[in-house]
Specification:
This protein is α/β, with parallel strands linked by helices and 177 residues long. It has a single domain, classed as Rossmann fold (3-Layer(aba) Sandwich). 43% of the residues lie in helices and 21% in strands. The protein is globular, with a radius of gyration of 15 Å. Bound molecules: flavin mononucleotide.
């Protein structure tokens, strides 16, 4: 990957703990990494953890806290060479397919010209629901790339579809974008 600026978007899914490993791997491979988190994601893991491992500020709010005239999402959208969303919740997939953009992740993704890799993770019943399938198909048609989900042990410990793609595979897919 000769493009060096990667934005990692983090949504409120249980697979969030694995995203720490993805950020570590990207940093180890010398990428500049900025993490964006939805408000729901910050209820599962504190932003400080991502800030320490990506060695950068973590963005959560749409509005800048300071007196900057440069909105966060515009700066971020043009800074990124590639964007990965991991985990991508059913909620985020729905928002993106509808063009809704009321949080830093959806707003930045809608504003960017960078390639976007989406890594959904959710319960099998959600993943196999008609509405999620339709939303994913809409996004595929619009040029978004997907990695996973795969079969694995879900939150209820059952082996089923909906597990987030393995981190090494997400890294490979990101390289191939
Ligand atoms: C413990 C817990 C785990 C969750 N895991 C998932 C998940 O893996 N996938 C998913 O789509 N939603 C999951 N949810 C539901 C999302 O958190 C919820 O839909 C939220 O609104 C997503 O917000 P976001 O897309 O802005 O991050 C989970 C909720 C809780 C409380």
């Amino acid at each position: 990957m000769n493009k060096k600026n990667i934005i990692v978007c983090i949504c409120g899914g249980i697979a969030i703990y694995k995203t720490c490993e993805l950020v570590r791997l990207l940093k180890k491979s010398n990428f500049n990494v900025i993490c964006l988190m939805t408000q729901e994601a910050t209820r599962l893991i504190k932003p400080e953890l991502f800030s320490y491992i990506c060695e950068n500020k973590v963005y959560i709010d749409i509005f800048s806290a300071n007196d900057s005239y440069d909105p966060n999402h515009i700066k971020l959208a043009s800074w990124a060479d590639k964007i990965v969303i991991a985990p991508a919740t059913a909620h985020m997939v729905a928002k993106l397919s509808a063009g809704l953009c009321d949080d830093i992740v959806s707003l930045t993704v809608l504003s960017t010209k960078a390639k976007v890799l989406i890594c959904p993770a959710m319960h099998e019943n959600m993943y196999k629901s008609k509405i999620v399938t339709e939303n994913i198909n809409i996004l595929k048609k619009r040029g978004y790339k997907f990695s996973g989900p795969i079969k694995g042990n879900l939150l209820d410990r059952k082996l089923a579809m909906g597990h987030m793609q393995e981190i090494n595979q997400i890294f490979k897919s990101l390289k191939q974008l």
